[in-house]
Amino acid sequence: MKPKVTMIAWNQNDNYVVTAVNNHLLKVWNSSTGQLLHDLVGHADEVFVLETHPFDCRIMLSAGHDGNIFIWDITKGTKTKHYFNMIEGQGHGAVFDCKFSPDGQHFACTDSHGHLLIFGFGCSRPYEKIPDQMFFHTDYRPLIRDSNNYVLDEQTQQAPHLMPPPFLVDVDGNPHPTKYQRLVPGRENCADEHLIPQLGYVATSDGEVVEQVIGQQTVDQDEPGLEPSILDGMIRQLQLEQDQRTGADQESAPNGPQNGEGTPRRG
């Protein structure tokens, strides 16, 4: 098998470079001379996560599809700590991403089963109040492209980055209570009535009736005396003009045989 590099990372002071290879080895190199210093052995599958410690130049974190998470001392080429992401009844979960906290005392990982793993000091009591299932209601909403090939949310016809902060829902789309909705950036100071999404039912192109969140205004836009967003108005105006042009093009197109015996149009 021809070795391939799957990930690369510099350590905190740039003296070392660590590469992950598809033969499951991690290699530590001197960044100035290119000399190979250590082979780090431990992973049993490909590694796509390499994270350096925010201030300790000796420490590097690696995680891979084998569910293993390692803390390495790359100056010595030794393993400092090892965690295994075992999921009861389902085997291990592949680790897709990891990040250190700014103080270097904690790190968080996400896995293939949608779990958020938090490692660090102390007890887990502050995290026990969080629901097991947390999704944004916009996570799986369809997108479309306008005439300029820009991406728009299909339901609201707005650019995704201009939409109001989303609501937190469970896996079935049911909104969480208001105390959890305030965890969403942009909704910290909203009144209770603005934290309860208004649900409605819409028909899809397949004829299936699905439940959608229709209340999309933030508290700032609902308060009296505040003007609506200029950008939102421009987006709505551009979409309206595009719809009018599309309708005009369809009306001007020929609707029947070329011999003059066309069928009448429906109003």
TrEMBL record:
Residue ranges, annotated region (Disordered): 239-267
Keywords per UniProt: Repeat, WD repeat
SUPFAM superfamilies: WD40 repeat-like
Top-level taxonomic group: Eukaryota
GO terms, biological process: cytoskeleton organization; regulation of cell shape; regulation of transcription by RNA polymerase II
GO cellular component: nucleus
Transmembrane segments: none
Pfam families: WD40
Keyword Repeat appears in the UniProt entry: yes
Residue spans of biased composition, Polar residues class: 249-261
WD repeat residues: 1-39, 40-82
Protein name stated in the entry: BRWD1 protein
